[in-house]
Amino acid sequence: MPPARHLPTHAELTTFLQTHLPPQLPVTITTTKKDGTIHTTTKADVPFLYHTPRHQSYTPTRHIASRIILSITPTSGVYSALHAPHPRSSVSSPVVFLHRPWSLNRSSVPHDALVLASHSSFDTHLTVGWNVALARRLDIDVDGAICIKGYKGEPERKIGLVGRLRTPTALSVIVDTVRREFNGQGELHEHVPVGPEGEDPSSSSSKIEVIAIMNAFHAEEVDRVMDVASDAKWVGDVGDGSQVLYLTGAAREPGLEAAARVNMPAVCVGHRACEEWGISYLAEVMRRRWPELDIVTVLEDEAEVASAKVKHGEAVH
Asked: Where is region (Disordered) located (predicted)?
């Protein structure tokens, strides 16, 4: 058994995760109502240190983590993993990472456990959006990629990455690669134009040169992707998006209609698959960094959140 010094401290784990999930500053959103009044709100990400150990002797630089539990939400499996015995339990404290932590039952968290959380930054960097890690896996030239910013009154919010493939690739090959990344998920929506003699060209022969990884899917976002690709001279005809693949989470009818108008194929992997990709990626990079660390991923159905609340003493309304 490797000695405990080969394991990370709570402080080291926190710092490591924040290199992949950069903290996001609060943003001020100003909207004008129909009656002309101006409404201002401040939006902040969840606290990264969402729940800290409840005793005065806690020191992040000294507390050792032998186990980290990664999950989207605090389901039954998260609590079970938190309380499961571990060979190093006498010298270490568990750590949990959550993407959507709001339903956490703090009274069911062991007194020496640390809970970390990231909502907005996780959505931006590890689902679909400005996801550089995913872009590299899809063989996009990240150095030349363009960031699409601005959404729902937040002008600096990163919602997309548009970049050229290093090698133009058949649509069917790219779709297979996407599905492997997202555990088999990925529905292709493609507008196939009818040929001059009425034949339907095979989509498998289509070459994709540009991929847009986008965290929103409406007509406006499709237009912005086309403008970026056109301005960068990555497409020949401003009205033809057949060489651009739009990769996103949930399928939205306005987005599908806009993509069809410019012949742009779209792959929708679903909201849940995007979140699971981010959790799995964090587990992968931490295993490479700390091979001795016990890394537990809990990817249970959302219904498990309700059952976890009942099991751990919360009322469900």
From this structure: 186-205
Residues of CATH 3.40.1390.30 domain(s) within the chain? 4-121+275-311, 129-268
Tell me the CATH number for domain 4-121+275-311.
3.40.1390.30
Q: What architecture (CATH level 2) is domain 129-268?
A: 3-Layer(aba) Sandwich (3.40)
- Closest listed residue to residue 79, CA positions, set 48, 58, 103, 60: 103
Q: Give the C-alpha separation, 14 to 51, whole Å.
A: 12
What is the C-alpha separation between 38 and 29, in angstroms, rounded? Answer: 10
Distance CA 301, CA 298 (A): 10
User: 260-287 b/e with 16+ CB inside 10 Å = b?
Assistant: bebbbbbbbbbebbbbbbbbbbbbeebe
Residue 66 to residues 93, 97, 224, 229, 276, Cα–Cα distance (Å):
7, 14, 46, 46, 23
What is the tens place of the pLDDT at every residue in 159-194? 999 999 999 999 999 999 999 999 999 999 997 654
Q: What is the dihedral of CA 252, 298, 178, 214, to 10 degrees?
A: 40
Place of tokens 């969840």: 46
- Name the pTM for this structure: 0.87
Partners of 114 in the β-ladder = 95
Q: How far apart, in whole angstroms, are the C-alpha atoms of residue 8 and residue 14? A: 10
Q: How far apart are CA 219 and CA 57, in angstroms?
A: 54
Phi, psi for 123 (deg, rounded to 5)? -60, -40
Smallest CA-to-CA distance from 307 within 105, 155, 36 is with: 105
